[in-house]
Amino acid sequence: MEYAINPWMDTATPVDRELAVKQWHGLRETLLGLGHTVHELGPEPGLPDMVYAANGAFVVDGTVYGARFRHPQRTAEAAAHRAFYESHGWRFVAPAETNEGEGDFTYLPAAHGGLILAGYGFRTEPAAHAEAQEVLGRPVVSLRLVDPRFYHLDTALAPLDDGNIAYFPEAFSVAAQRVLAQLFPDAVRADEVDAFGFGLNLVSDGRHVVLNAEASGMAAKVAAAGYLPVPVELSELKKGGGSVKCCVAELRD
Ligand code: ARG
């Protein structure tokens, strides 16, 4: 590992490159097997974190709000994402504020008429939340993250369907916990073991919940809530501080 920009990364820990690629292909096959379309953004030399495709932009209703990375090691990734969206005919809006795309933004079309949830505290600036609201025309609820191990919103919270979420309350400020409890009284609440197993870094299509295999307790919780857990092995990706959701950018057209 060439650099460390979050508490999960350690330049002294070896990453099994071959296994990492194999696991990434496993995730891709899983999504295809569930009937989803998968576009691939190719890797670029010198940008190892590009595998975490969620961070390059945030799309709602065909409008793309571009990313502006916090760390210089990832700055150049934003242009690759921009080129992808522009070449596929999406409406792209370049950001003025620091934000890491779907790492810190998520959208629930059926919650309160269409709600954006946004995290801040480690990567994305609160000013970007206001900017996203202006660009995307949806209410943005700002949530303060307080634990550096859960440095992106998507490490601590995920939509399970169009209107409900799963989250790990302790990753948020006490006030943000109250806001989430008010907005999502029926949310699936995760515990510390679920969160440390990257069980919140999931991708759901409203029925199938694709999540890190290590998070077996989280799988049981989503099953109890009526969803179908689909575990995938992503141990090598966890060494970079990411899992299922980090590797996937959702294209909401
Ligand atoms: N190493 C990457 C970073 O620290 C991991 C990004 C994980 N992505 C995510 N959506 N949480 O920026």
Brief summary:
This protein has 253 residues and is of the alpha/beta class.
Please provide a written account of the structure.
With 253 residues, this protein is of the alpha/beta class. It has one domain (17-247): L-arginine/glycine Amidinotransferase, Chain A. It is 26% helix and 18% strand. The protein has helices at 17-33, 77-87, 126-136, 174-183, 192-196, 216-224, 235-238; strands at residues 57-60, 63-66, 91-93, 105-108, 115-120, 140-144, 157-159, 165-167, 188-189, 203-204, 208-212, 228-232. A three-stranded mixed beta sheet has the order 1-2-3, with helices on both faces. The termini are far apart. Bound molecules: arginine (ARG). The site of arginine has 16 residues, from loops. This is Amidinotransferase.
* Low-pLDDT residue spans: none
Oligomer: single chain
Q: Beta-sheet strand percentage?
A: 15-25%
Strand order of the largest sheet: 1-2-3
The major pleated sheet works out as: 3 strands, mixed
Protein name: Amidinotransferase
